[in-house]
Specification:
Number of strands: 9
Number of domains: 2
Helix content: 40-55%
Largest sheet: 7 strands, mixed
CATH architecture of the largest domain: 3-Layer(aba) Sandwich
Structural class: alpha/beta
Shape: globular
Distance between the termini: 67 Å
Length: 357
């Protein structure tokens, strides 16, 4: 009997090999999304490569290769692999629609592909930033990253925010339902949380703010398409100029700010007498340890390639990075003048919630 000793080198080699496979499959998902191939497959129950090419408007040879790759990866199914290449029928399984196609579905993680493509395009600039200590402005990560970030948060922001997260804070939820209130969504990105709030709380005046102009323009388009009445403002949270808000939301935005403590101080001045700030940020471990779990690994992956470089554009940046830990949030809240900073009992795998008053 032969016993094979698996070394740590073998394990790491296999891990990186698998990582390359997964990255390449995400790039293929990017192609499918950008070219409308999943939509075209969904439009008819079974399609051959020539049929998909005609429906999606792409070259037949590319259609065949992409379909074969998707079937090999298990993302779609082929009815008879033994048929001639252009006669094989391919189908997008019903169970994969939410993941790959339905943008509001809780399992819709296909936008990871766009985020990775955006980061890949900016990596040479990240390399330079590491060498000279500068940063990489958010806009240089491009439209792909922006759309991917908005898309990955969209299901939670349009649904979970008003259906699960805010109801878990009963006093706040009841006030939003029963009284005319003012709500600010700061760091709103492409506006999905702002839109979700306006739908769920029709009595509230909801305003979205973001420093990235392209995100604000996208948010305005999304709101118009959704038919909701909201306002979007291009501006920096540190220079927040409005006041009288009953609730300020910072959803996965605090760790990206160059001056988060100053932003929290400015937002405290924008609150009404009984107003509060609700922060949702990464649910990393309470303290650093290594090796980390998959959530910790993913957050540090975003941090080294995007979040920290984007924050380092300001020479005086607090430079938090994606792994924002509870003690850091509490410290910033105290420095910004808040009397209370409490972690909220909201069950979520990716986000930890803080209520500041």
């Amino acid at each position: 009997m032969c016993h094979t000793n698996i070394t740590r080198e073998d394990e790491l080699t296999e891990r990186l090999f698998q990582g390359a496979i997964h990255a390449l499959e995400l790039y293929s998902i990017y192609l499918g999304k950008e070219l409308g191939l999943y939509e075209a497959l969904h439009a008819e129950s079974r399609q051959t490569p020539p049929q998909l090419a005609a429906r999606a408007g792409i070259h037949p040879r590319y259609a065949r290769e992409w379909l074969e790759q998707q079937a090999t990866a298990g993302l779609i199914v082929v009815d008879d692999a033994g048929r001639p290449a252009d006669e094989r029928g391919y189908t997008l399984p019903h169970d994969h629609l939410g993941v790959l196609l339905e943008q509001d579905h809780a399992a819709h993680v296909a936008p990871f592909a766009h985020m990775l493509v955006g980061i890949a395009g900016a990596l040479p600039k990240v390399v330079r930033a590491y060498r000279d200590g500068s940063g990489v402005p958010y806009e240089l990560y491009g439209a792909d990253f922006r759309a991917g970030q908005g898309g990955i948060n969209r299901p939670a922001f349009v649904s979970d925010l008003a259906e699960q997260w805010l109801p878990a804070i009963p006093r706040l939820h009841a006030r939003l339902l029963s009284e005319p209130t003012r709500v600010a969504d700061v760091g709103c990105g492409e506006g999905w949380a702002t839109i979700g709030l306006a739908r769920a709380y029709p009595q509230a005046e909801v305003v979205g703010y973001d420093l990235d102009l392209a995100s604000i323009e996208a948010a305005r388009r999304h709101a118009e398409q959704a038919g909701v009445s909201v306002r979007f403002v291009h501006g920096d949270a540190v220079d927040f100029a409005e006041d009288g808000f009953d609730l300020v939301l910072l959803l996965e935005a605090l760790h990206d700010m160059t001056q988060p403590t100053e932003a929290l101080r400015a937002l405290r001045g924008a609150l009404s007498r009984d107003g509060a700030v609700l922060i949702a940020d990464e649910r990393v471990a309470e303290r650093f340890s290594a090796p980390g779990d998959e959530i910790e690994r993913m957050m540090y992956g975003w941090s080294v390639s995007h979040c920290l470089p984007a924050a380092m554009v300001d020479p005086n940046s607090e430079a938090i990075g994606t792994a924002i830990r509870p003690d850091r949030v509490r410290h910033m809240a105290r420095e910004a003048g808040y009397g209370r900073c409490e972690v909220q009992p909201i069950d979520n795998q990716l986000f930890r919630f803080f209520l500041l008053q």
